[in-house]
Amino acid sequence: MNIEQYKQILIKYWGYTSFKPLQEEIIMSVAEGKDTLALMPTGGGKSITFQVPALAHEGICLVITPLIALMKDQVNRLNNLEIKSIAIHSGMSGEEIDNALENCIYGNYKFLYISPERISTRLFEAKVTRLNLSLVAIDEAHCISQWGYDFRPSYLKIASLRDHISDKVPFLALTASATPQVVEDIMKKLAFREKNVLKTSFDRKNISYLVRKVEEKGAYLVKTILKSKGSGIVYVRSRKRCKEVAELLVANGISADFYHAGLSDELRDKKQAEWTTGETRVIIATNAFGMGIDKSEVRFVIHWDVPDSIESYFQESGRAGRDGKQAFAVLLYSPSDKARLHDTIRKKFPTIDKIKDTYEALCNYLQVPLGSGKDSVFDFNMYDFVSKYRLPVIETYNSLQFLQREGYMEFTEEINNPSRVHFIVSRDDLYKFQVANESFDGFIKLLLRSYTGMFSEFVPINEDALSRKSAATRDTVYQYLVKLSAFNIIRYIPGKKTALVIFTEERLVRKALMISPDNYLHVKEKYEIRLDKMIEYADSDNHCRSVYLLNYFGEESDRCGICDVCRERNELDLSKYEFDIILEEIKCLLADNNPDAEELVKLIDYPEDKVIKVIRWLLDHNKLIPDGNHKLTWKS
């Protein structure tokens, strides 16, 4: 197919007349059957790069993503476009998963979304050979790299798919941020047949990156938003802080609301919709806010708390200015932040003994016998668990994260699974049942009027909505569903909101639980390096913010001219060219000897007043260091 045919698909389903930068190249690369790693910034339109070619070719596209909320969101969007799509994740029963896979084999589906830990299950491995796959898309591909900031062992199993599918099926790996080291690791771990990286520049020329060193963050935030225009996001680290900051803004006459993962799906959808449409001007959120944001005119993203990696900061701040107009990414930084960030190291890395204690307590809590439990999925109540065993919450959470890194289990944050219904009788047999059981006839008709597809798959339902439509109580609706299930007319799975624990290995005795001290220290060291880079970014006041971020991701760039550091340099009334010429002269002279400031001015063949301005700026920003005799050295 040529690119014009792909554009017709883009127009038909999404209404866009042209592709965004890089989308076209990625689509053509995949269409040629090439394994492809695509680096696209937040808001670059990653999903289009696999959805369009999948629709253009026969077969089904397998999409691997760890984000269950994103999975559900994209499946709903595709189905609303009448593109048959389905999801498989750990919150589903074995019967649902089997039903979904059978539908993908026989039901003309175009997209199968799956969480990574489901790939290595016996059920999936048995059925994947019968899937007519056209493409495998791996979202959040940085999760496969132990050098990355969000490593997940389940991603290491993805390459084994190649043993079960045609070697003509290309892999498309997608990520919004990856260092050069992680880029190489992704291609290696996914067993790319040849290296193939396509990326857009990480440079966001319209975003002004600012670091504001303030003690009173609340006062600064109110003052800044009151004098700013447009809508924005304020990121905080805790759910409690979310609500507090929102209340502070509202008390000062600013339209604001808060958002975090602890809210119900309905409430989160409502809050996000009100912010997207402009009814709410500012949303205060944890990092749970980000998936599926479709708002281009965000004028500012402010971080109340310092993230623990450049990757996280860059991804979140990149939600500003997607319309290409001027926008601001502001990091609020106080002296106490550095101590708090260093304290997270202690909390994030419990001792190996503590991690093993948590594992044993978890197995006992879930009643998993020794030698069993592999591929088992358990509902998990963190509050009840830590209360029952008197465990510290943060330390326990991070112990679970480490057990996940080591590949013993998967731990998903709280997900909200709606109730599901699937008719397991034919339409003819259902009609006979309705005739013989008149009391159920009205309710069955209500179900069939309200939802479609229930004869072929499990369909999400809402008992409250059925209650309103039928003018019956919610309990009456529930009883109808339970009784129909008992009569083997339907399969009814009541909804629930819960976190999940998936055992990827059978339960081991304590001494067989291998957590390598070297690996533990290696992971800790990498975390400390990422944290130090984030602190360095916040602390520094002599490096262009944009250049610093781009260098981190392996890109070279000239200074942006619009960040707080560049703006201060601009106030010297020197052009970038003049400043850089004088700067290079100073560096060369200091490489050979150590003059004082007065001697330095005389040695540089440039107007004296301009040289003095640059020297003062360098002294103010601790790039030039005077000794006891006022002799200068360059601090690299």
Give your account of this protein's structure:
It is a single chain. The chain is of the alpha/beta class and 636 residues long. The protein folds into five domains: 3-199, P-loop containing nucleotide triphosphate hydrolases (Rossmann fold); 207-333, 3-Layer(aba) Sandwich (Rossmann fold); 342-417 and 499-528, Winged helix-like DNA-binding domain superfamily/Winged helix DNA-binding domain (Arc Repressor Mutant, subunit A, Orthogonal Bundle), CATH 1.10.10; 419-494; 572-634, Arc Repressor Mutant, subunit A (Orthogonal Bundle), CATH 1.10.10. It is 45% helix and 16% strand. It has a seven-stranded parallel sheet, sandwiched between helices. A six-stranded parallel sheet has the order 8-13-12-9-11-10. Strands 14-19-15 form a three-stranded antiparallel sheet. The relative contact order is 0.09.
Explain the layout of strands and helices:
Elements: H1 3-14, H2 23-31, E1 36-39, H3 46-56, E2 60-64, H4 68-80, E3 85-88, H5 94-106, E4 111-114, H6 122-128, E5 133-138, E6 171-175, H7 180-189, E7 197-199, E8 207-213, H8 217-227, E9 231-235, H9 239-251, E10 256-259, H10 265-276, E11 282-285, E12 298-303, H11 310-317, E13 327-333, H12 335-348, H13 352-365, E14 377-380, H14 382-389, H15 393-405, E15 409-417, E16 419-423, H16 427-436, H17 438-450, E17 459-461, H18 463-470, H19 474-486, E18 490-493, E19 496-503, H20 517-539, H21 545-552, H22 564-570, H23 576-592, H24 597-603, H25 608-620, E20 624-626, E21 632-634
